[in-house]
Amino acid sequence: MTTVLGCIADDFTGATDLAGLLARSGADVSLRIGIPKVQASEAAAFEVIALKSRTAPVSEAVSEALAALEWLRTAGAQRFFWKYCSTFDSTPEGNIGPVAEALMEALGTDQTIYCPAFPENGRSIFMGNLFVGQQPLAESPMKDHPLTPMRDSNLMRLLEPQVTRPVGLVDRLIVARGADAVRSELAALKTKGVAHVVVDAVANDDLTIIAEACREMSLMTGGSAIAMPLPALYLSDGVLSRAAKGTPAPNLESDAVVLSGSCSAMTNRQVADYMARGKPAFRLDPSELAENGPDKALEWLAAQDLALAPLVYATADPASVKASQEKLGVAQAGAIVEAALAACAVAARDAGARRFVVAGGETSGAVAKALGVERLNIGKEIAPGVPWTFCQSGGHDIALTLKSGNFGSEAFFTDAFEMLETA
Ligand code: ADP
Fold first, then answer.
1. CATH of 256-420, one of 2.40.50.140, 3.30.70.2860, 3.40.980.20, 3.40.50.740
2. Quick one: which atom of ligand 1 is closest to the CA of 338?
3. Three-class DSSP category at 26
4. What ligand 1 atom has the least distance to the C-alpha of 263?
5. Residue 254, Cβ density class (10 Å: 0-12 exposed, 13-18 middle, ≥19 buried)
6. 113-146, pLDDT tens digit by residue?
7. Is the CB of 314 within 6 Å of ligand 1?
8. Which of 284, 317, 362 best tests ligand 1's pocket when mutated (most atoms within 8 Å of CB)?
């Protein structure tokens, strides 16, 4: 199979989110963690490479993106997508603009679009300004992000210092007039030398219009949602065949484990809901882990019946998280918990678990790494942005779902296993 669209994502859960939205169409989607070391044989119609470059030095982010581009080209891709966060997480140095400009140069193209809108998740763009729900980006909690504080809501102003060529806008009034109007405005901007075009979108219908107008660009950039209409458009254009269906779920043993390292409000409710159903659960205490390591948790896990899908969690309310962080340091507390959950994942797999539900973005990265996962085939979506994935770990087929922060509903853990039964 030749790859139709090659995608490069600047972080891991962002890549999963994009892969899940592309797979909604039923298309064959594959996610690779880092630049694959293997040849691009057996590539899927949609290939997503997850980098970890959102806050990396600019030169590193650029060279990784270029290496990813090369691999995707060898997979046959001729169109590419640069995926970043729907809150445009970046600094005046980068990395959104510099990577886009480097990819444009490598592809020999002189215009691309920027559309981080994700209406289903409350991210919309109007007159070049990005909103999070009803708040302008710079008034949303993103203004206090520890690594990429967003202190301006205007995407043109945010992008300008990151790029060398002119920045422009196709506004909502043009988008509302349809794909032809968007196309002609882009062409008009191109004659004026505008290389970087922010495009307004407030609803899914806008995304369909924009994707229709831009689907032949060699490079599109944005959040995950602007890529969502592409599989259907490619099918109607005939560049994607109907045969390119997602891989069916493998037949897996039902032994399972739930590992939760997210402390978001929703994950706290999901853990409580799962325990209220009488599921066996073990709470990780960061201080105890710092002193004695994960042995107690591993002993507990070894004594469990994995057919019951036991839960190991560090999920805690904000006050206890703060207490652990004050005692151990933020980074240290996080690393200790991640290492313990990763060890539990490996132990569970070695004891026969083949289904894994993991909660937490960083936690997911740690678990996927420990399980030695390099490639994930994307299956059914359990909740918006959270699909089941199928991969290989230690020579076994496994199912893995990686849920970031506030995603999913209260019954997510139970829903996930039920969906696998009906997959
Ligand atoms: P989310 O997707 O909700 O942000 P992450 O896994 O990305 O979840 O981040 C949660 C971080 O908090 C991880 O580094 C995890 O190890 C850490 N953590 C989990 N539980 C605790 C706790 N009880 N105290 C301190 N840190 C914790």
1. 3.40.980.20
2. 16
3. coil
4. 3
5. middle
6. 999 999 988 999 999 999 999 999 999 988 887 7
7. yes
8. 362
Distance (Å) from CA 317 to ligand 1 centroid: 11
Q: Note the pLDDT tens digit of each residue in 222-266.
A: 999 999 999 999 999 999 987 555 566 778 888 999 999 998 888
Phi-psi region of 94 (alpha: psi -120 to 50; beta: other; left: phi over 0): left
Atom from ligand 1 closest to the CA of residue 337: 16
DSSP lists the bridge partners of residue 135 as 132
Quick check: CB of 402 below 6 Å from ligand 1? no
Please state the domain extents for the chain.
Answer: 5-237, 256-420
Q: Which phi and psi angles does 260 have, rounded to 5°?
A: -125, 115
Residue 334 alpha carbon to ligand 1 centre in Å: 6
**Whose Cα sits closest to atom 18 in ligand 1?**
334
Return the H-helix or E-strand segment holding 198. strand 196-199
